[in-house]
Amino acid sequence: MQVTLEHVTHTYQPGSPFQSTAIEDVNLTIREGEFLALIGHTGSGKSTLAQHINGLLAPTSGRVLLDGQDIHQKGYDKREVRRKVGLVFQYPEHQLFEETVAKDVAFGPKNLGLPEAEIAERVQEALNKVGLKDKDIAEKSPFELSGGQMRRVAIAGVLAMRPRILVLDEPAAGLDPQSREEMLQLIYGLHQQGATVVMVSHSMDDVARFATRAVVMEHGTIAMDGTPEEIFRHAERLEQMGLDVPSVCKLGIRLREMGLPCPEDIFREEQAMEALLALWKEGKAHGAE
Amino acid sequence: MAEPIIAVDHVSFAYEEDGPLAVRDVSLQVEKGSFHAILGQNGSGKSTLAKLINGLYLPTEGTVTVCGMDTKADENTWEIRRRAGMVFQNPDNQLVATVVREDVAFGLENIGIPTEEMPARIEKALTDVGMLKHADKAPHLLSGGQKQRVAIAGVLAMEPEAIIFDESTAMLDPKGRRDVLKAVQRLNKEQGITVLWITHFMEEAVVCDQVHVMHRGQIVMNGTPREIFSDVERIKPYRLDAPPMARLAAQLRAQGMPLKEGILTVDEMAEEVKRLCK
Fold this sequence. Notes:
The structure holds two protein chains of two kinds.
Chain A lengths: L2 E10 L7 E11 L4 E6 L5 H8 L7 E6 L2 E2 L7 H7 E4 L12 H11 L4 H14 L5 H5 L7 H13 L5 E5 L7 H16 L3 E5 L3 H7 L2 E6 L2 E6 L1 H5 L2 H6 L6 H11 L11 H20 L1
Parallel strand pairs in A: 3-8, 3-9, 6-7, 7-8
Antiparallel strand pairs in A: 1-2, 1-4, 4-5, 9-10
Chain B lengths: L3 E11 L6 E11 L3 E5 L6 H8 L7 E6 L2 E2 L6 H7 E4 L12 H11 L7 H11 L15 H13 L5 E5 L7 H18 L2 E6 L2 H4 L4 E6 L2 E6 L1 H5 L2 H4 L8 H11 L11 H12 L1
Parallel strand pairs in B: 3-8, 3-9, 6-7, 7-8
Antiparallel strand pairs in B: 1-2, 1-4, 4-5, 9-10
Helix pairs in contact in B: 3-4, 3-5, 4-5, 5-6
């Protein structure tokens, strides 16, 4: 399953004095099995782009294709898109509303008109996937849970639709370090199980660790598109855009400035460890001569 | 030791009578001109503590003293909030006016500052946070980091001695976070404003003088950032994580590389690697 954005432009409140173009002439194909990170400064158009992937927003001009079909053409069943592409908003726990966790997760499947037995099965499956297996939790009010747990309930609500593509807008924002890590491992696990993932993120360390592809947005257009390795080679360009590079990248740059032969292409912690150990051992060997 | 601006003395707090304690027997002092951080996971009680200091909540047990005034005495409330201002998490919930300049004026009107004094105070406050050029803009046109700096200006215009930041960078992007933290560091260094910085971002705590770690309503560690983060394993049970360079240093030490203790920043790591590898 693949989604293609063709020359997509989105203008909010066109024709009014508040008219603003959030994305302009964006061309992007999200391929099956990718873990695509969407990066960019606030206001760069990432969230607007994300909301086109499941048809929540329609382009002002251009087309969005799901497996080659224009999802906004007349007669196309948009529910199909919503089913196949799950969108998790920023702070999705703000949208929980049901009396119990189980009812909240069941909301989507119910709207699909599925039989009760299948709904129950999907709810259990989705709660298992987000690590909330405990029967007690299913019957609790979502508002009794911790922030991290509430967010997982919200994601379970999307997973219960059994989407093939999962679009998440800053899923780790506002979580403490351990809850962040748990959330990222959860998303990584879903990707490993075959989901195509599109994740809006501000954390370059997370992008370096998990993404197979990174798309950098600036002023509503795609400024860079490549593997994390390719993107992070352009530290200066990223900084000009108000973005960061992973901290180990910064370390590598600093070491090279100091004249140490630190290899380029270090962007994950384990790579930095290897490179620094090699540098140290080499230094020791030379010292012994 | 300099006189404490904020003194929390054996404070406990429960939201409901006979309910569980959200803050349990907490004591801490923040000296005049210092920059303290409170670190803790979501739900550790750090925001409750902030609201106790600001007099939004009153202790169930113990006393909170701000600039020598007990928060329990009703007559102190407004003076405490003026002298120890507070900046909250969500930038969109704090700005009330339609123009930046008027938003900064809002607090001044509340405390009865004469109209003719206002423009000078407002301009100074906006200058201090680097937002003067946006003085006549509508707040909703600003980025999150800019909005937070306007919120800080609103507090600054009241000429406080201390400012309490309750996760004020949690909803910002990396650049917004950097800009806000830089502005606050400058206020602390150049104007001697006492800062209590509540956060769960480890790398922000690195720039503080003193760090207090909260866990399940209690303070479980006190120390300089170097003391707190030197032992990566020790902070893990509190659901915190060391800054990336401290973590990397710990892993390299485990592989036998004799890096010195207390590495927190990229520059410190680079210097140390150079020393060992030249």
